[in-house]
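Q: Hi! Curious about what Exocyst complex component looks like structurally. Here's the sequence.
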Amino acid sequence: MERGKMAEAESLETAAEHERILREIESTDTACIGPTLRSVYDGEEHGRFMEKLETRIRNHDREIEKMCNFHYQGFVDSITELLKVRGEAQKLKNQVTDTNRKLQHEGKELVIAMEELKQCRLQQRNISATVDKLMLCLPVLEMYSKLRDQMKTKRHYPALKTLEHLEHTYLPQVSHYRFCKVMVDNIPKLREEIKDVSMSDLKDFLESIRKHSDKIGETAMKQAQQQRNLDNIILQQPRIGSKKKPKKDAYTIFDTEIGSTSPKSEQDSGILDVEDEEDDEEVPGAQDLVDFSPVYRCLHIYSVLGARETFENYYRKQRRKQARLVLQPPSNMHETLDGYRKYFNQIVGFFVVEDHILHTTQGLVNRAYIDELWEMALSKTIAALRTHSSYCSDPNLVLDLKNLIVLFADTLQVYGFPVNQLFDMLLEIRDQYSETLLKKWSGIFRNILDSDNYSPIPVTSEEIYKKVVGQFPFQDTELEKQPFPKKFPFSEFVPKVYNQIKEFIYACLKFSEDLHLSSTEVDDMIRKSTNLLLTRTLSSSLQNVIKRKNIGLTELVQIIINTTHLEKSCKYLEEFITNITNVLPETVHTTKLYGTTTFKDARHAAEEEIYTNLNQKIDQFLQLADYDWMTGELGNKASDYLVDLIAFLRSTFAVFTHLPGKVAQTACMSACKHLATSLMQLLLEAEVRQLTLGALQQFNLDVRECEHVPF
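A: Let's find out. The predicted structure is below.
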């Protein structure tokens, strides 16, 4: 029973499933019916399903047949109408065909025109696209053309800027074109070309400043000289209560305006404001002699290319080489002042250029580099000056050299270079200058002493008298009262020597100018040099004259008189030095003149020479004595040789009257003593023999004759 119920339930369930599948087949799209049929064949009741499917198909066929039977008359009517329409449709077809043929014939030209229009529109689009592309490419080509023009005109820094714009702004927009790829490949070559050309310009610049260093230095030193002259004018002629224009900074001789290619546009004013000398010729600046733009351009180009350090090292290396060449003095520099001047001009020109580069570029050179070069230049310059100045024997050349060195130092000091070592070296040259002066004045004194007549200066008029007194400080009331003609007690070499001593002092003073020395130092220098002149040069010249073999007693007497007056004039020389140095002689460190000692020594030497010559002359006369010690005849007059000797002594003693009393007395006493000693020696020699009465009487007469000489 239960099996029957279960079978019946399964049958109902299968029938329901088959019904569902049939409905699904009826309502589902044919393309999606596969899964449904598969579910039928997966089961075991596909036979029963086929039966149900057949039953369902027959049901649908009956429904279709019923529906067709119901609509058959309408179908027949439709066919009838369709047959009628067929004829009309054929007519319409013929009309359409005919109309189409006519339309094709009539529209053939229009089609051709339309084809032409189509081609024109296509060309127009192509042209428009080409124009657009060309508009993109044209700025690139223009920039490239501009780049070539700039390189052709050697405007390398703007060319580099153009190249940067071309590479980063314009070329990326048209990078897919072949010519752009060629340009991109060319850019490194163009950079190298710009770099090489700018380096070539730099080399030309370095050569240019090497050639123009002399002129630049000359210009700078001229301007320093003008400034110094202006300062001297202001010091000598102070303007009280008047408004002065402020002096412009004399720091540089440049007035350079660097354009947009420079990292630092700077104008250096170096025009001197000389109020009283409006007609002075304007001194050109260095920019008038050298074009500095190549170095600025090259610096900027290398900076943009990232090779600034390479450029700086190259520039400094080349300038160091040029510095060594500039600092090498010519072998004959010591022969003329122009040799020294050219040497200094080149050095000044070199450092003026470097200073200008220092202040118009940002880091191309720095202060440490400049100081290093200056230390090297200073040591080499001082060594060269020491060597070459030692060959100078002309004091005028040494003085001119000193003035040139001072101007050289002042010029460089304006630009901030320390020059103390140069002034220290000038103190060394000062000693050499003093030596050359002493040699020169040695010749001057020698000429004066050789050309002197050693006779008192005759005066025939008041004019001549005043002229001599104006040359030499001499005052004698008794001589002034005497009528003309009259004579000064000294000879011509006294005023000449006195004036030459003053000239020597002036020469020493000239060297001390502009050395930044104090008055005390100048006074000390002049006094020491004057002492050397007096104690060494003049003393040696006087000693040489006194020791000459052919000098006479008259000349020796005149030398004593002359040195006496020169000794008295030493106080006037002291006053003269005091007046020109403004240093009082009472100052603690003031050096005293040794003139009195010099002239005293010369006078004592002349006195000794007088004593010696006088004694020699007496000996010569006594050698003429010819006594016959064996004769018995008695004489009644003095011997002839003794008469001549007494006449000589009288004339000589008359000359001694011009000497100071003590000197004349000493000379006479010395002569008398020597004469007495010589006569006694003569007598002692005769006693060895057997003397006769006549010989003794003759000798006694000669001695008595000597007693009548006016000693």
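A: A fun detail: DSSP finds 21 helices and two strands in the chain.
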